[in-house]
Amino acid sequence: MKLFLEQRKEKEIEVIVRYHEMNSDVKRLVQKIESCNHTVVGSDNGRQYKISIYDIYYIESVDKKTFIYTRDQVFRSEKKLYHFVEELKEYDFVQVSKSCILNLDVLEYIKSLYNSRMEATLINGEKITISRTYLPIIKEALSKEVEQQ
User: Residue 124 is part of which domain span?
Assistant: First the structure.
């Protein structure tokens, strides 16, 4: 794959993808590009913010409240976790417990814990527990990531 970058006077970014045959690599690339504009709404201190899905590390539900975690901020959302599960499943987000979905792009590594559970360490050092119910889902998602690289 060749990559060409060209600075132009137009403010809008234009991306042209040339390919011989539509395959999973091309589809994944197009999906990543299209998702750059995908945002969710979260609030902090009474203010509403548009949050790019690529800035989200994980989304968690605690005491029937939903929180969106980025590298260094936490936002509150009115949406229920299951809405985010559906909305973000095509963008490398996977459910890792009953109350948490994780952005695989920020996953550093996974290690085993007791009781067949695992712990995910994120690129910012935060740790998330993966419950055994969701282990097959995350293993499948990770194997797809490896296959596509």
Answer: 38-148
